[in-house]
Hints:
Layout (H helix, E strand, L loop, with lengths): L5 H5 L8 H9 L9 H24 L5 H19 L16 H7 L2 E6 L5 E4 L2 E6 L13 E6 L5 E5 L2 E8 L13 E3 L5 E3 L9 H21 L6
Antiparallel strand pairs: 1-4, 2-3, 3-6, 4-5, 5-6, 7-8
Amino acid sequence: PSKLSLTEELRGAGEGRTQFGKALEILGINPIKALSPQAKGRIERLWGTLQHRLVVDLRVAGVSTPEEANAFLASYRTRHNDLFAVPPKDEATAFVPAPSKEDLALILCRRAFRKVTGDSTVSWKGRKWSALDSQGRKVLFRKGVEVEVLDLLDGRTVLHRQGAFHELVRVEEGAEKKTPKGANAATSSTGERVRKPWTPRPDHPWKREYERMASRKRIREHSLEQIPWRG
Length: 231
């Protein structure tokens, strides 16, 4: 099982689960782990049948070849179940209708929680992704909203938020950056607008501080020249 994140612990989540465990939980399947007492008990009972009773029954039936063993097993299971099977307390079937193919695709997938950034994108696999609605328009979210990213087996990537699912598309690097405007923008040889180097105006605070520093340096140098140095 995976280690619980701090967010999951604060939400009151229980034992850490693998991606497979999360899918089983959504499907309503309770897995019995191989090392658990329940599973070990079933295995030991099965070994008791296969390693002891079945061997004796084969000998009693005079089976000596693989072909005879296959013919014997065809009827052995029915006789064994008639002898040891116990009828269930509830005769009603425990099976439920299977999910649709689309729902099953949204269940049998890799899942992870992410926080939406200020430009309504999420980070996934080292890339930025935007969510699209059914009309192909970008879906906007409040910054910091937690969403769930689903990596489907068919290659699609989907965002899940409050029961709604949106297709995720990868944002190309630099596509979300604002284009510079005004005098500071120029056009490169490729037709893209690039920012020119910016020079502070003469009365900018940065320049005034530089002038004060230069003035203090000149005063120190002048004072040192007035000191009568001895050889």
